[in-house]
Amino acid sequence: MATRRSCDRCYKKKERCTFEPHAGKCTQCVHSNSPCTSLRSRNRPGRKPKATAFGEHGSLHVWDAVGGSNTQSHKLQTPSSTSSLTPSLTPSLTPSQTSPYEADNEAETSHTFEGGELVTSPRHYQREEGFSILWRRELGVSFEQLYDLQNSSLEFFYVTNDIFMLGPGFADQFLTTLRQCYEFAPGFLRDTYQAMFTALIWARHQATSFDQVDISRGALSLRRLRTFSVCNLRDAVAAVSLGPTLAAFDVLTRCVGSVIILRHSLSMVQEWYPTLSNSPGLDPIIIAPIFWDTAHCLILREIPVIRYQVRDPHTVDRVAGMCTTLLPILYDLCVASNKWRRSGEVQHVRTIREVENKIIAWRPDFGPELHRSFSKREILAMTAQASMYRAAALLTIHRLFNLIGTADDIAKAYATEIVANLHEFLVSLGQEEKLQHTALPMFLAALELPNLAQETWTRLSLLKAPSICLKKLAAVVEFVWEQRSSGFSGSLFDLLEAGPEFVIIP
């Protein structure tokens, strides 16, 4: 098990730095009443990389990484083993050797795969009071130091990454899972995590300019993903952590190839999914990408890569919220919609109607632990989100059977229900609130309700930088209404395929 590195004070004074179990400060800092931090920069192993500038005056940044035809497939080599390991042959998968990155990590718990399950122990995170003050104070340090800080401060991690969670109640498990994935494959994931961190500093907080986003690290990570083959359980964990992170990075920076990256990474771990899905500790990195892929396929009448397996009906997710039990139903809808589109056979119509009845009857399951684990605000957010997705699914089915201009009043009723759920949430908590991960329902509502207030769209994202994704969705909405005003009376989904390119996000 990797140990904490010494704090800045003990390192400077060359004193032995010791921690009591689950203590936030070392013994020496407690006795001297000193702040206990580890913000000094870390020396990377090996030689320093040679800086290379591209383009005139070094101004060119490359994101699309195109591998040559002779590129060999890379296999993830972990410190403990270089052989292919399968769940049936490896009941316990533990890092038996400390990597260069692990040794410098501030790990505070053990982590193992036991019977295919990721087992976690309690962690203690140092919480910083007054994050906005901390943020301004730390802006003078490097991105790498800020990146390292989020590994030791749960509060810092949440405020940096809050766009990926419905609330702070999901932060602890999310950070725990990311740290464990990183410790299994540090060299493989560090560039990706750091690239995403720089994108968040720009897009979420506007604490830097876009030219400071580490596009080169993102390109390197994309190249690794494209040439990577999954041969064992470790590889699968690394791939399912790397791919969706890169897809989200693309949404923040270019919003062009996000879904391709997402679906490629899910296809890489498809055969390993039954094993991965049995581990509750991996839920934070598995459910969200499946939810995203399912939302994409719902709009474009495609088939999701993976059908979510409900292990516990009370499971709630950082992105999907209470919609976890709805995911398998939406998958079945996507499959039936795709088959009906391709064949036109009546049997698929019956299947869609059966799915419709399941959606009408569906209600999210409230587990006994929900009120103890999450705040009132988080529960209200998940409840509103679930209602919006239920209405969005019914609206989708309605438009599968009814062309534009046919039964528009029913479509408007579903769209109005979606918007009403959002407004009810905002009114209950204040107009300054945001409800993330509801872009798909609001997009469908905007296609049915003309002149939906622009202010409504601003309630869907915490980003301070203009959202490229939401701009593209707004352009599609404008295109659809132009066509409707011109007398278009065909399939809404055919119209979406003929319109501007867009990336749907959940």
From TrEMBL:
- Which UniProt keyword terms apply here? DNA-binding, Nucleus, Transcription, Transcription regulation
Molecular function via GO: DNA binding; DNA-binding transcription factor activity, RNA polymerase II-specific; zinc ion binding
Q: Region labeled Disordered — which residues?
A: 33-118
Instruction: Give the transmembrane ranges.
Output: none
Classification from the root reads: Eukaryota, Fungi, Dikarya, Ascomycota, Pezizomycotina
Where is this chain compositionally biased, Basic residues type? Answer: 41-50
Q: Does the keyword Calcium apply?
A: no
Question: Low complexity bias: where?
Answer: 76-100
Q: What is the protein name given in its UniProt record?
A: Zn(2)-C6 fungal-type domain-containing protein
InterPro entries in UniProt: Zn2-C6_fun-type_DNA-bd_sf (IPR036864), Zn2Cys6_DnaBD (IPR001138)
